[in-house]
Design the sequence.
């Protein structure tokens, strides 16, 4: 089979060329992310211009996460309706303006570097100041206009932020997001 042989050769080439060790060495990736003092430029833009489109297509989500590359996906989730009995409370008043939270779990109460997840509601004209992510953050926009660093995301957008990401958030008309972090953030302002 000509097609099968071609596929087998392509897979073999991928394994040789992109085996984990070679791939990480070629990309300059490392397994552990640096501490907070080194995070600001964490592996951004590492020699990606040296790769062909075919090689870039072979990178795994793990490779992208280790490279410090953010991932944004548009999902077709339709209209999301939240239960009426959810309790939202003001989130970090004095720091965040017009932001409310409904915690789903919060391990930071046990371990200051613990993970957390919550539904977060931004009221119209809400604002969260710039901060640095020490670990990964995942945000799913459920409703409204969610704005990060001036870029507006619509419902159904899944955003995975890599360690070292800095951003501020806001909403003009209000929104609700589902957010999870593996390590809390460091405030910059």
Sequence:
């Amino acid at each position: 089979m000509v097609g099968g042989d071609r596929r087998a050769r392509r897979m073999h080439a991928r394994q040789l060329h992109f085996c984990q060790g070679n791939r990480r060495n070629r990309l300059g990736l490392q397994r552990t992310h640096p501490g907070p003092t080194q995070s600001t430029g964490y592996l951004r833009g590492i020699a990606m211009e040296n790769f062909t489109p075919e090689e870039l297509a072979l990178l795994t989500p793990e490779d992208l996460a280790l490279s410090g590359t953010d991932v944004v996906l548009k999902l077709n989730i339709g209209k999301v309706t939240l239960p009426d009995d959810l309790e939202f409370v003001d989130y970090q008043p004095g720091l965040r303006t017009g932001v409310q939270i409904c915690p789903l779990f919060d391990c930071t109460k046990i371990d200051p570097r613990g993970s957390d997840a919550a539904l977060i509601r931004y009221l119209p004209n809400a604002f969260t100041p710039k901060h640095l992510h020490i670990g990964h953050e995942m945000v799913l926009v459920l409703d409204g206009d969610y704005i990060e660093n001036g870029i507006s995301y619509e419902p159904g957008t899944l955003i995975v932020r890599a360690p070292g990401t800095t951003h501020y958030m806001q909403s003009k008309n209000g929104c609700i997001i589902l957010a999870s972090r593996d390590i809390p953030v460091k405030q910059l302002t």
Observations:
- The longest strand covers residues 116-133.
- The helical segments are 2-18, 20-27, 53-57, 61-67.
- The chain has two domains: 2-69, 74-187.
